[in-house]
Amino acid sequence: MRIPQITLSAIIILTTQLSVFSQNQTNFQKDSTMLRQIFDETLENGRAYEDLRSLTKDIGARLAGSASADMAVEWGYNKLNSYGFDKVYKQEIEVPHWERGTTEKAWYTDTDGNIHQLNILALGGSVATEGPLQAELIHFKTREDLQNAKKKDVKGKIVFISQPMDQKMIETFDAYGACYPIRGLGAIDAANKSAKAVIIRSLSLSEHPHPHTGTMQYEDGVTKIPAAAISTMDATALEKHMITTRGVTKLMIEMNCKTFPPKKSHNVIAEITGSENPNHIITVGGHLDSWDVGEGAHDDGAGIVHSMEAARTLMALNYQPKNTIRVVFFMNEENGNMGGKTYAELMGQSNEKHIAAIESDRGGFTPRGFSLDGNDRQLKLLLSFTKLFEPYLLQQLEEGYGGVDITPLKSEFKDIALFGFVPDSQRYFEIHHNANDVFETVNKRELHLGAASISSLIYLLDNYL
Amino acid sequence: MRIPQITLSAIIILTTQLSVFSQNQTNFQKDSTMLRQIFDETLENGRAYEDLRSLTKDIGARLAGSASADMAVEWGYNKLNSYGFDKVYKQEIEVPHWERGTTEKAWYTDTDGNIHQLNILALGGSVATEGPLQAELIHFKTREDLQNAKKKDVKGKIVFISQPMDQKMIETFDAYGACYPIRGLGAIDAANKSAKAVIIRSLSLSEHPHPHTGTMQYEDGVTKIPAAAISTMDATALEKHMITTRGVTKLMIEMNCKTFPPKKSHNVIAEITGSENPNHIITVGGHLDSWDVGEGAHDDGAGIVHSMEAARTLMALNYQPKNTIRVVFFMNEENGNMGGKTYAELMGQSNEKHIAAIESDRGGFTPRGFSLDGNDRQLKLLLSFTKLFEPYLLQQLEEGYGGVDITPLKSEFKDIALFGFVPDSQRYFEIHHNANDVFETVNKRELHLGAASISSLIYLLDNYL
């Protein structure tokens, strides 16, 4: 391996050195100077961290349809107005309205008669138990095992799926994606076998006492049964019991969560008007709503302050964008994505040309790069920024997902370039959708480096896309 | 910029694709399979996190010369013995012995007569105040300002240097390096102007209440004056007072730290004997000692468990190294580096050939790559691993520092390749040398990914160096 690899590395070194000379030096110098100014401004004067403190501590958790979400809309509108954008406005949308309710309890009784309480969270959208629900528990190690089970063995029981996220995957979002159907479709699978309810091991990579919530689905024609997540610690303990005393342990569960009629809410939008192409739009955003546990600090308070700070930095440097830079605080990403869908629909009906959108919804951790959902020309453009991004350790420039909120824009603008901000993912799934997602888990430098990275990409896209 | 850059990126893409085919496929497949097995073993069965819990909670802070350091030596010896190495032994060294003592207090009085207490830590090696020491305070924004000051203005006063670490530097170790002389040489600079004592702003990138300690030096023929660090929060507040009421604020300080005669201590060493070249040595290590505040979790408990786990993983996979893999727990990196110096001396007198050394002493954060202190051939070799490291996001492969403990080996073995493990550096300097450096700040996945990265480098060096 050594010799050919050395040849390769030699070529790479050569290419890299060549590039410095082969590039348009004037532009490269201008752009690298601008990126340095962007990072300096954000690292020295950035507001993202204090804005996030305010969003998480003055508002807190903010599930779409709640009073907190309404206050978050006011917070966003006022905050954006304080930064001197050319335009700040709200965009009305309709959002689902589900409430966790006041009771979420579960216990299991082992064969020795010992009673163990479980830390549970109803999955978002779950029906209630309508009072105490007690039944025999049946354990499946995977969703596939449940799908392959005999209906008579599952009928009338409560299903427990203990499948953990795969520790071996380096990119934790891959491990999340692999387990997502357990949470999203487990209630349908269990109901298809006539189960009374389903509980799943929380989608998390760490063992801790807090259950992780998240969306789940029902299917027309399939009975809607209650669905909850239990903490990874409880799941590990319960699985041990089930393996030694399979099928005989009873579970008692009560949840009084409820779905209400849809409510009006808003996306919150601010713009820096383009000096050359005011109706060419570069959207940058995150989602303003969060789940109703923790404080929505990394998911997605970070994306909100990233987007606002990225634009604030450009304004602080008196940068006049050629295209319109539009900051969008999307509402309802977590349980319906009505903000993203409505925004795309309305933009499709407008005379605007949407050339790019950037989403930050993977946390406020140390930046690693950007993923592109776009075409080859756009990928080449992204890779052409390699040398400019190098000093800021933005080394992961690759094809990939943009983000839930901006993906609907693709159906309206087929040539749009969708970028996802890619921070380090290792800590995300111990914080995601649970009580751990609080301001204290966010690091100021990591957050501000992310904002500066996004600001730099906006600048480069504004000039070269 | 766009067109030439696209050309560049096109070349890079081409090169990358070419490489896949140009490489020796057999070796590349074998090596990439081995790296995958290494990461799987560490991520699924790694012991590093629980070993670190034991080192930080059962032993805790462990300054060289203390009983805790002696217990850490026992801990390391027993722990290494539990992993089935071919050899485990201690290497006797002599270490300095300094103790913080029981009193560390400081107050300043503002011009309105308000008394403010300061959170202080004596710098390692500082002399005591010999009872209460009160004097006028004189403030300098930088070390240079102090060096340029008139002796008569400084004489008899306590010097305060408020220079902060530079937030704008992306690599935080660069910002640390730039401020290091303030802590290391500030007492000499101040004594040269006949000051009574010196206090400095803690070398940290975050504003918090805990002062950061660290080494400092005296110079023969220059009066030894007491030196302490105050917390960044206190430094910011005190600087405000000094700017508005420069020179009139009084400071009272008392510290009863003390230097004792040198003591015996040990490096702790374990080996997997090389099957082909038993006297060709690849050293991997971190330092077992820590400062006497916090728990020495990131600095350098992480390096200790990284090194042990990297070797454990290779043994768990039944890998038979061609060269001898030697794990070294170095003692006394923090205040004398007697472990590193003695190890190098003794090895220089042996008949061993030291081909490489790897040090982990930058924390247990998410891995970013390796830095090499070596020659061009070794750099090309490191770069030749680019494709193998890609799936594990080891993207920073560059020339740079190896580490304090292994650097003395260079004077004995001029062709040795010294590698520093490079984790993400953004959080390091809020944890470094202060009460924040506890087990709870370490993330299990980040720590285990680091161990697997080091294990992978050992494997590749064993085969291709």
TrEMBL record, chains A, B:
GO molecular function: carboxypeptidase activity; metal ion binding; metallodipeptidase activity
Claim: Hydrolase is one of the keywords in the record: yes
GO biological process, one term: proteolysis
Pfam families: Peptidase_M28 (PF04389)
Keyword Membrane included in the entry's annotation: no
UniProt keyword annotations, A-Z: Carboxypeptidase, Endoplasmic reticulum, Glycoprotein, Golgi apparatus, Hydrolase, Lysosome, Metal-binding, Metalloprotease, Protease, Secreted, Signal, Zinc, Zymogen
Subcellular location: Endoplasmic reticulum; Golgi apparatus; Lysosome; Secreted
Gene Ontology cellular-component terms listed: extracellular region; lysosome
SUPFAM superfamilies found in the cross-reference section: Zn-dependent exopeptidases
Chief location category: endoplasmic reticulum
Domain of life from the UniProt record: Bacteria
Domain Peptidase M28 residues, every copy: 267-448
Description of how the protein assembles with itself and partners: Homodimer. The monomeric form is inactive while the homodimer is active.
Record-given protein name: Carboxypeptidase Q
Organism: Psychroflexus halocasei
